[in-house]
Amino acid sequence: MQVSEVQRARAAALSIASSLGLRADDAIVLHDSNKLTLRLLPCDVLARVAPVADQVARFEVEVAQRLNEVECPVAVLEPRVEPRVHERDGFVITLWTYYAPVTPSEVSPADYAHALARLHAGMREIDIPTQHFTDRVEQARRLVADRDRTPGLGDADRELLGDTLRKLRRVIGERGGAEQLLHGEPHPGNLLSTGNGLLFIDLETCCRGPVEWDLAHAPEEVGEHYPGVDRELLRQCRILVLAVITTWRWDRDDQFPDGPRLGEEWLTRIRAALAP
């Protein structure tokens, strides 16, 4: 989120919480990217704040509620208030349970895989309209093709990303494997180690596709503990996921911390992964 918006976003979250009867005198920034994640005190509530124009908060709230009903390992909305999306001063705000981190926070690959398998099992029990994982790949492909939005990409790097996104999307689609509802981005940053066990957060990225797409976001060792994995499909998904997230780092409006360095580093990794 732009620096100029952070104070307004904090104020909006505090205002909403107070209007709902929660004592909110301070807001600690826990994470700042395309949206702001705040810990509101002393009520100890987690607030997610995003500009109205960029939000899919209603979808995330619906998914969280549905997954909680089937006892999936996901973070839950704040139980002291109505589970809904709030708007204030150009922002959308959702209120969630705050989970204090536990020590040690390192998660074993086996536990990670078990939690993800439980999440996938619960996701197979619900039916909710969502995009296909290839929609996100297409969004990345269009970004690569738009020189105005990715001015820092050199011609060779642009060709590398464009070809990788196009070819692997086709190859993975042609395998014709089983598909289901997925988290979309179950990387370590979206997995909390809590007193209630491992819990996945950030459900706005849910999509449909093979489970290997989700596994491609997790550390490589996790795939070794997940049952029934198509190893070749997982390898292809890993490269495709890397191409997608590398593309985001070259967006002129990207605000990911250390984005330019990561963009360069990940281009090198893509070349190595594609090397014969």
Q: How many H/I helices?
A: 9
Order of helices and strands: HEEEHEEHHHEEEEHHHH
Overall pLDDT score: 94
Percent of residues in beta strands?
15-25%
Q: How helical, in percent, are the residues?
A: 40-55%
Sheet/helix structural class: alpha+beta
Distance between the termini: 40 Å
Question: How many beta-strand elements?
Answer: 9
Query: Unreliable segments (pLDDT under 50, ≥5 consecutive)?
Result: none
**Cross-sheet strand order for the largest sheet:** 1-2-3-5-4
| Largest sheet report | 5 strands, antiparallel
Cα Rg: 19 Å
What is the 3D shape?
Answer: globular
Can you offer a commentary on this structure?
The protein contains 9 helices and 9 strands. The chain is an alpha+beta fold and 276 residues long. The chain has helices at 3-19, 57-69, 109-123, 133-145, 155-175, 211-215, 220-223, 231-249, 259-274; strands at 24-32, 36-42, 45-51, 86-88, 91-97, 180-182, 191-194, 197-200, 207-209. The strands form 3 sheets. It has a 5-stranded antiparallel beta sheet with strand order 1-2-3-5-4. It is 45% helix and 17% strand. The model has no long low-confidence stretch (mean pLDDT 94).
Annotation keywords:
two-stranded antiparallel ribbon, alpha+beta
Describe the structure concisely:
Helix content is 45%, strand content 17%.
List the helices and strands and how they pair.
Layout lengths: L2 H17 L4 E9 L3 E7 L2 E7 L5 H13 L16 E3 L2 E7 L11 H15 L9 H13 L9 H21 L4 E3 L8 E4 L2 E4 L6 E3 L1 H5 L4 H4 L7 H19 L9 H16 L2
Helix pairs in contact: 4-5, 4-8, 5-8, 8-9
